[in-house]
Amino acid sequence: MDDLGTLLNSWPVTAATIAVGPDTRLASGGDTSAVRRIASVTKPITALAVFVAIEEGSVALDDQAGPSGSTVRHLLAHASGLLFDEHRTVTAPGRRRIYSNAGFEQLADHVAAATGIPFAEYLNEAVIQPLELQSTELRGSPAKDMWSTVEDLSRVAHEFMRPRLISTETLAEAASEQFPGLRGTVPGVGSFDPNPWGLGVEIRGEKQPHWTGTENSQVTFGHFGGSGSFLWVDPIASVALVELADRDFGPWALEVWPTLSNEVLRRYAADSA
Questions:
Q1: Treating both helix axes as pointing N-terminal to C-terminal, what angle do 101-115 and 42-56 enclose, rounded to 10 degrees?
Q2: How far apart are CA 45 and CA 59, in angstroms?
Q3: Between residues 92 and 269, which one has the greater pLDDT?
Q4: Separation of alpha carbons 247 and 15, rounded Å
Q5: What are the φ/ψ torsions at residue 226 (nearest 5 degrees)?
Q6: For 232-266, what is each residue's pLDDT tens digit?
Q7: Both ends of the chain: CA-CA distance in Å?
Q8: Which among 132, 170, 155 has a CA at the least distance from the CA of 242?
Q9: pTM of the shown model
Q10: Cα separation, 175 vs 168, whole angstroms
Q11: Residue 94: per-residue pLDDT
Q12: Could you tell me the maximum CA-CA distance found in the chain, to the nearest angstrom?
């Protein structure tokens, strides 16, 4: 892992940390306890709270939520027609993949209304405390305003590989393409047709260029954040990777993240031995 630290030290950032899982919890390149804003990596954690609410029976994927004709499933899969940061639509649900922070905010409102518990409180009780995320806190929007550490995110990644808060069936649904064939944009990366997405997580598919590695399988799922953070899980390789940096996402990330991902897969993929 030391030479992975050397790789991180070559990045145009002041500090970056990573963890590889699920069984090999290795970290490199900086202080793994540093608390940083994780931006849109907030969304998979918010989604976990929604999944818990679904399994408790408070919420259902086909509940009406968001704009007219939209459901919880639409909101989780960025298919509700809502704009990026505006609570108004530009198309009917299910017609296009429009990445939407507003959609996740309406999703959290739906869970709060269904459970009778403010969403931040529900998130804390349903996910943060059970996963022992000691340094993770929602400080605003459930789409983009969570703060965390690479250590905590490694626990989240583990949940997305070997779940204990949710069933394996729920995880399989989350990691499956929703509303197949929709085109859309991955912000900061490019427009794709199709642009596969699961429930709260992006699915790699055949997208190129991409923020994951060229050696990641097409079923790799996860999320990156505008704060320079990411989390991905590759079910074929049985490897997860999380990263936090102190520089906002930009062209630099699309240059160095895939290289790191490929190197991690070469070393730790289940069939590498």
A1: 30
A2: 17
A3: 92
A4: 8
A5: -65, -10
A6: 999 999 999 999 999 999 999 999 999 999 999 99
A7: 17
A8: 155
A9: 0.96
A10: 10
A11: 97
A12: 52
Residue type, 99: Y
Confidence of residue 27 (pLDDT cuts 50, 70, 90): low
Phi, psi of 166 (to 5 degrees): -130, 165
How many alpha carbons fall within 13 Å on the CB side of residue 201? 27
The model's confidence at residue 22, banded by pLDDT at 50, 70 and 90, is confident
Contacts of 174 (CB under 8 A, 6+ apart): 47, 51, 198, 199, 200, 201, 221
Mean pLDDT of 35-63: 98
Q: Please spell the DSSP secondary structure of 78-145, one letter per residue.
A: T-S-B-SSSSSBSS-TTS-B---HHHHHHHHHHHHHHHTS-HHHHHIIIIITTTT-TT-EE-S-TTT-
Helix pair angle (2-9, 251-268), 10° resolution = 170
Contact predicate 18/232, CB 8 Å: no
Dist CA 40 CA 237 (whole Å): 24
Residue 71 CB partners (closer than 8 Å, separation 6+): 61, 62, 63, 64, 65, 93
- CB of 219 within 8 A of CB of 236? yes
Contacts for 263 with CB less than 8 Å, ≥ 6 apart: 4, 7
- Asked if pLDDT for residue 272 goes beyond 60, the answer is no
Cβ atoms within 10 Å, residue 146 = 30
